[in-house]
Design brief:
The complex is a heterodimer of chains A (about 500) and B (about 210).
Chain A lengths: L1 H6 L5 E3 L7 H4 L16 E4 L36 H5 L9 H15 L25 H13 L4 E2 L9 E3 L3 E3 L24 H7 L3 E3 L3 E7 L5 E8 L2 E6 L3 E3 L2 H12 L10 E7 L2 E5 L14 E3 L14 E6 L3 H12 L4 H8 L4 E8 L8 E8 L5 E6 L4 H20 L3 E6 L2 E7 L23 E3 L14 H22 L1
Parallel strand pairs in A: 1-6, 2-17, 10-20
Antiparallel strand pairs in A: 3-13, 4-5, 7-8, 8-9, 11-19, 12-15, 12-18, 13-14, 14-15, 16-17
Chain B lengths: L12 H6 L6 H11 L12 H14 L11 H11 L5 E3 L5 H20 L8 H13 L6 H4 L2 H18 L1 H6 L32
Helix pairs in contact in B: 3-4, 4-8, 5-6, 6-8
Classes of the chains: A alpha+beta (about 500), B mainly alpha (about 210).
Chain lengths: ~500, ~210
């Protein structure tokens, strides 16, 4: 977005709550140290299946959530955008795969996505620009087991480099060294986070990135236009005057800010339909040494479960092999399995023999799953968000279906002590995109119905969750939103 | 439940890595700081008895009979609470962390009294575990647990304790994790493959 607008000659300023890191100098291969990449302002979690925030899904700093995404970049499939038409539940998108496909093509070619020459699922598409990354232990185990039962697999598309890559505006990015640490910050620049790709390009085009600026509200005129963005920084409170605002703070902070400001909510939809991908994991212990800290964590993919023939649910999911860092794994063993004492220590001494598979499954929007402002204030005096989430029958049935398949695969692969961790990943929804101003917050171009010069562009506008990791779609939507904004602006002038 | 053989790894690998050029400066700095232990908190969250109870609870959740000195989990937990360092979220059913922990320690003594007629600190080890299991199962007796779910509190406490213990370089060495040797990355990443500086488990040949 930033680079697109700047390249078109617009004067653009990005206000980022976090800091600008120097990954080669600042990023340690140490999970506790890297907590600095996560949004740690407290969120309150309720509902029947309260979600973990912080390390689970929320970033801060120039580069945002791409600083800690695993680089996993499968495309959604065309039918993901039409789940209501296909199943009669959920919500269709006002745009389709075909609207985003030029951007998927552009992004994969620009970021340097590593992946297979021929991708087995979805519409025909160009080869990935770089060869796949090497498979680590969990990927090899999943490949072996899937081959036996006839589930097709492929090296996964990952936005981390299998060869060195020239990044316009930034310079050469080196090939991935298999450090396995994507989820807590890439220190080499091999992973395509925004701080080593689009942000430097934007700066080269003249954009300004102002770090350490926490937006707290908006100034408006009598006509309802936003005239300035109010933020606090080290220097106190300030205001950035503006002609147009793009709110891109994610599915928690974007709606939170709108609710605090009392903005863009004539539909009452701000904060509603909070979604999180079904992400049940199955772990097992193997005779072989896995050493799950090495290699791209999600090395292998299967989308044979995109629309399983025996499904008792709407939508579908993808399968993914997973490596894991020790602190993350220990936390899951504690929370998910409740092990403690010598039992826990012994289990953890087997860490080097542990491998996992998980899913990324669609999630239906549901009433009652929402974000509201709580009565409790944070350090800035702003109300903390309360997010309520209860998995619906559809998510539960999908997770059960997936767990059965994954347990079967791990049995075949030779695992013992197999256990599952029922989890939900990513933050999606709360500022729905749609054609009807009574049921949506923004239109198909991500422009707010209620405020003439406000666009919202992040995972909050997703009308449905899609059966693919969200990062690539967020980026594609961002480029499309910028292009549509520039087109409309061109027409107006 | 534990069908796999118990594994053990050689001691001293982290300190020898730190003396080598295999660890980037950023990683080395983080590890060295943690090896020094938690700095004292700026203010006390617990009174002396409550803190001793917290230490005793930590010692049951992560017993360290094999390690001297033990990794001081309670000290780091105390520092995090005093500094207001959380993990970015909490169950809406629990009060803010500091309040939850102060109440939780009181609750643990109430459960102890209900089950055994004495405070947690004077209980024998097995009885301490019984108290903690009651919390974990959400069936703990005690005034505190009428307004704060004991299973929610126990999960938070356990997650924090585990997070602190396994963040420690020596606990990572214990489980054979060597990802901190990050300066050159990894070549041998497949099953049963090991780069030269990855320690083999004790009792195996390279």
């Amino acid at each position: 977005m930033l680079s697109r607008l700047a390249a078109a000659g617009l004067s653009v300023v990005a206000l980022e709550a976090g800091v600008q890191w120097r990954p080669d100098r600042d990023f340690a291969t140490d999970e506790a140290e890297q907590n600095k990449l996560f949004w740690m302002d407290e969120r309150l979690s309720g509902g029947g299946d309260p979600l973990a925030f912080g390390k689970n899904n929320s970033g801060i700093g120039v580069g945002g959530s791409t600083l800690h995404y695993t680089a996993y970049t499968p495309r959604p499939q065309p039918d993901d955008f039409r789940i209501r038409s296909e199943f009669g539940v959920g919500e269709d998108w006002p745009i389709g795969y075909e609207d985003l496909v030029p951007y998927f093509d552009e992004l994969e070619a620009f970021l340097g996505v590593s992946g297979p020459g021929t991708y087995p699922w979805g519409p025909e598409r160009p080869s990935y620009p770089l060869a796949p990354l090497p498979l680590n232990g969990p990927a090899q185990l999943m490949e072996r087991a899937c081959a036996e039962v006839g589930i097709r697999t492929s090296p996964a598309p990952n936005a981390a480099l299998s060869g060195s890559w020239y990044q316009p505006g930034h310079g050469w990015r080196p090939a991935c060294t298999n450090r396995g640490f994507c989820q807590a910050g890439c220190s080499t620049g091999a992973k395509a986070s925004m701080d080593v790709t689009f942000v430097p390009l934007a700066v080269a085009h003249g954009a300004e990135v102002r770090a350490g600026c926490f937006v707290t509200g908006f100034a408006r005129n009598v006509a309802g236009r936003i005239t300035g963005v109010v933020y606090t920084s080290r220097d106190g409170e300030d205001i950035q005057l503006c002609d147009h605002v793009f709110l891109c703070a994610g599915a928690v902070e974007s709606p939170r800010l709108l609710l605090i400001a009392g903005l863009a909510n004539s539909s009452g939809e701000v904060g509603r339909n909070f979604m999180a991908h079904a992400g049940v994991q199955v772990w097992g212990s193997f005779e072989e040494e896995v050493r799950p800290y090495k290699g791209i964590p999600g090395g292998l993919i299967s989308e044979d479960t995109h629309r399983p023939p025996d499904a008792d649910f709407a939508g579908g999911y993808l399968l993914q092999s997973i490596g894991v860092m020790p602190l993350t794994y220990a936390g899951e063993v504690a929370r998910g399995r409740g092990l403690w004492g010598e039992q826990l220590r012994r289990h953890m001494r087997g860490y080097n023999h542990v491998a996992g598979i998980n899913i990324l499954g669609d999630c239906l929007p549901a009433g009652g799953n929402d974000l509201t402002l709580s009565d409790e204030l944070d350090g800035r005096g702003l109300p903390k968000p309360l997010i309520r989430f209860t998995a619906g029958d559809n998510e539960k049935r999908m997770s059960r279906h997936a767990e059965k398949i994954m347990r079967g695969l791990w049995d075949i692969a030779g695992a013992s002590d197999v256990w599952s961790f029922d989890r939900y990943a990513h933050t999606i929804g709360t500022c729905r995109m749609g054609d009807d101003p009574d049921r949506a917050v923004v239109n198909a171009d991500c422009r707010a119905f209620d405020v003439p010069n406000l666009s919202i562009c992040d995972n909050s506008v997703f009308p449905s969750a899609l059966a693919a990791n969200p990062a690539l779609t967020i980026m594609a939507l961002s480029l499309r939103t910028a292009d549509r904004f520039l087109q409309m602006r061109g027409k107006r002038e | 439940m534990n069908l796999m053989p118990d594994r053990a790894y050689p001691m001293g690998t982290v300190r020898s890595l730190l003396a080598s050029d295999r660890v980037t400066p950023a990683t080395a700095e983080a590890l060295r700081r943690r090896l020094l232990g938690a700095r004292p908190p700026d203010e006390e969250v617990f009174d002396a008895d409550a803190y001793r109870t917290l230490e005793a609870v930590c010692a049951r959740l992560i017993p360290q009979p094999d390690r001297y000195p033990p990794i001081d989990v309670a000290a780091e937990l105390h520092r995090r609470l005093a500094d207001g360092i959380g993990d970015g979220w909490r169950y809406v059913d629990l009060p803010p962390d500091r309040i939850a922990y102060v109440r939780g320690i009181v609750g643990i003594d109430q459960t102890s009294a209900a089950l055994f007629g004495e405070p947690f600190l004077t209980l024998a080890g097995a009885n301490r575990d019984t108290v903690l299991r009651a919390l974990q199962a959400g069936v703990a007796d005690g005034e505190t647990w009428r307004t704060m779910k004991s299973d929610c509190f126990f999960e938070e406490l356990l997650a924090q304790v585990v997070d602190i213990y396994y963040a420690h370089p020596l606990a990572q060495e214990e489980i054979g994790y060597v990802g901190m040797a990050d300066a050159r990355g990894w070549q041998a990443i497949g099953l049963d493959e090991r780069d030269a500086h990855e320690p083999a488990p004790l009792g195996t040949s390279r």
